[in-house]
Amino acid sequence: MSCKQLVLDDDQRFALMKFRRSVQDVIQSNHNDAFLVRWLRARSWNAEAAEKMLRQSMKWRLQWEVETKLKDWIPPEAIQLYYPSGICGFDKDGAPIIVVPFAGLDIVGLLHSVSRQDLIRTTIQILERVLKMAAETGANNVLVIFDMDGFSLRQYAWRPAGEFIIALLQMYEANYPEILKSCYIINAPRVFAIAFNVVKKFLNEYTISKIQIFKKDPKKWKAAILSNVAPDQLPKHFGGELEDPDGNPRYVTKINQGGKVPKSFYTKKLDENSLSQDREYVTAVIKKGDKITLDFVVEEEGSFLRWEFRTEDHDIRFGITLKDADGNTTPAVRHGRVSSHQIDENGVLACQAPAIYTVTFDNTYSLLRNKKIHYCVYVAPPINKINILPTEEESDLSCLPEKVATLGL
């Protein structure tokens, strides 16, 4: 898509030229003007901010092996059976249509059956697949339908569930900016307003402007969807013509409905077997009103700081700060309380060098309880210095470049 087709003004064209020059070393042949404009819009046409965002996302793609192993990765059976989503067709402009029966997302069951990393990998695969489809039609964006019929806030009272949803939102905003053409949230119950007030804090204004929310009024939301989608590209349940061979109007052959994950899929308890066994773990007691700080000197650009920990019985405050060569100190992972007593906390951070990274396990807010913690934190070498592929255990430590599980609901 050319600049003329994008309808840019003079200042925007200049920002695009400046941005393209600054990222020549990382962009690929298929990264056209439309691709670059997404990042500029996400940063209000500030070329320097867009460059920083894109470079960080490129590191993130390396961490998640998006261009390599993830392409052939097969999700665990529990995800294949119970992760609700599907692609049913294209809108009138060629944008792929993703349908998510959100009430079928048993996030508690999935988090007890598979790792968070596997759920994130699955989400990345879906996004990459629809973006490839969009590129083939020249649409460069996607249309999403969230069916909230039967939605309940009950399972999101479990803190790790809320944290995970927020992590997905921030991953999307940081690495897939401006790809949303339209989003129809339909059959939204009254309680959904509470959830959306939390969710929209993690979405930019452009994304929010593309969202339309409808209550249980099929006449209104069907008319809205059909204004952009031809009936032969939409399941009958949403006002279209598509159905399964047996007449099911939800088109389940293409759209996984999710559902309650049977406990037969649940893995062993998190405190029995969820920490990796290939590295040495430290066990410590953090006294009430006290904290543990760990300093890591990073000398090689492109190194990764990895962590995994769990606490017993109670949460802990966690965060990472960065001190650069000029002595400036900035947060690398925002400090906040994490429910590591309910689900193992792990992640990876792409490091700049030279720098000192300080990892903090903070119990100063607790005046009554000591906290027992098991942790493993280490600096991994740059990817081009690794001579063998990472083990599955090491791969499971991959996480967002900016950890957001500290936010909670």
Automatic annotation (TrEMBL):
GO CC annotation: cytoplasm
Protein name stated in the entry: SEC14-like protein 2
InterPro entries with a match to the protein in the record: CRAL-TRIO_dom (IPR001251), CRAL-TRIO_dom_sf (IPR036865), CRAL/TRIO_N_dom (IPR011074), CRAL/TRIO_N_dom_sf (IPR036273), GOLD_dom (IPR009038), GOLD_dom_sf (IPR036598), SEC14/CRAL-TRIO_domain (IPR051064)
PROSITE patterns named among the record's database cross-references: CRAL_TRIO, GOLD
SUPFAM superfamilies: CRAL/TRIO domain, CRAL/TRIO N-terminal domain, Supernatant protein factor (SPF), C-terminal domain
Domain of life: Eukaryota
Organism from which the protein derives: Ceutorhynchus assimilis (cabbage seed weevil)
Domain GOLD: 279-379
Residue span(s) of domain CRAL-TRIO: 75-246
